[in-house]
Write a structure and sequence with these properties.
The chain is of the alpha+beta class and about 110 residues long. The chain is built from two helices and five strands, in the order βαββββα.
C-alpha cells in the first residue's frame, strides 16, 4: 500500500475519481463508493463511501483501490492493489496500482 498526501482537508471521492478519469487511459473504469464484486456476473457493491476503485475493463480482475481518509490539516489517499492472490495480485501491484499512484501524484487539483 502506498499513500499520497494532499495538503488540504476535505478532498472528496468525487475529486479523486475525476482526477483518475482525466489521467488514466480510456480503457480504465472508475467506480466511486464501491468495491469490486468478484462474482463474474455480479455488479459492484456500493457500500464503501470512502473508496474509489480504478481498473481495466470491468475492474473485477485488474484494479487498485483508493481509500480517502482525513488527517490533521490534510487528506490521505491510500492506494492498494486489488486481486485475491497470486498472479492477479502481482499484476495489480506492479502495473495498475503504480499507474493510479502516478495519476494521483500529478493531478493538478490534488497537489
Amino acid at each position: 500500500m502506498s499513500t499520497v498526501t494532499v495538503s488540504r482537508t476535505g478532498v472528496t471521492t468525487d475529486e479523486v475519481a475525476d482526477a483518475l478519469r482525466a489521467g488514466l487511459p480510456a480503457r480504465y473504469v472508475v467506480l466511486v463508493g464501491a468495491r469490486v464484486n468478484l462474482n463474474p456476473v455480479g455488479l459492484p457493491h456500493a457500500d464503501r463511501p470512502d473508496t474509489v476503485v480504478a481498473g481495466i475493463g470491468s475492474a473485477r480482475l485488474f484494479h487498485a483501490q483508493v481509500t480517502v481518509s482525513k488527517s490533521a490539516g490534510q487528506t490521505l489517499l491510500r492506494v492498494s492493489p486489488g486481486g485475491l492472490i497470486g498472479m492477479l495480485r502481482l499484476v495489480n501491484r506492479f502495473l495498475v496500482a503504480p499507474k493510479v499512484l502516478r495519476v494521483l501524484r500529478s493531478a493538478p487539483g490534488l497537489s
